[in-house]
Known about the structure:
alpha/beta, 34% helix
Amino acid sequence: MMIAGMVKSSLVDYPGMVSCVLFTPGCNFDCFYCHNRSILEGTHEVLSTGYVESFLRRRAGLLDGVVISGGEPTLQPGLIPFIRKIKKSGYKIKLDTNGSSPPTVKQILDNGLCDYFAVDYKAPPAKYEEICGSGAGAGTVKETIQLLVDAGVDFEVRTTVIPQLGKEDLISMSRELPVVPKYVLNRYRLPENYKECDSSRIMEKPYSQEEIKSFSELIKEYQPNTVC
């Protein structure tokens, strides 16, 4: 299990919890607007699991939960044993994933290891490679979301409303998913680091919060639990 960064205390990453956030390196997607590009490109430091586990033991009772984010955590071969170990300390576990590994998510579900999931649904299927890089696809993401729905666990689906997504895209995305417990529309923020070849896309004018709110009202017909 590799850990590329840690936020020792957060009030916003796990709903209703004071949490520690752990970032794993590497991702099988290459979203042009990624805010964690350093841990995709290898320009990050690696924290030892011993250091992280020691920190979590000391903070047991002071923190409520641990968020495992990335990068893409399901790429880590040691993910499940690591979750099992820190869960024994009494932490609630939240997993952030791009949804590309349904078998890993199923294994986590079968073992009851996570208390909350967040899955990023980034684009309509026809635009997935354009936005998330070569080889990225919506099929496995939708399969992961269906697994979570069928399991009846707590989770949310998140879409960052980048300028390249229009109203019809968002309606289409909301219609092609099963009804989820929470569908979050996030406002696009300019990343600090990005590829020069993506600069024109990065600099497109973002939607205002008022526009995003209007989108959320439109898609509530298909996803009644939409928030922004």
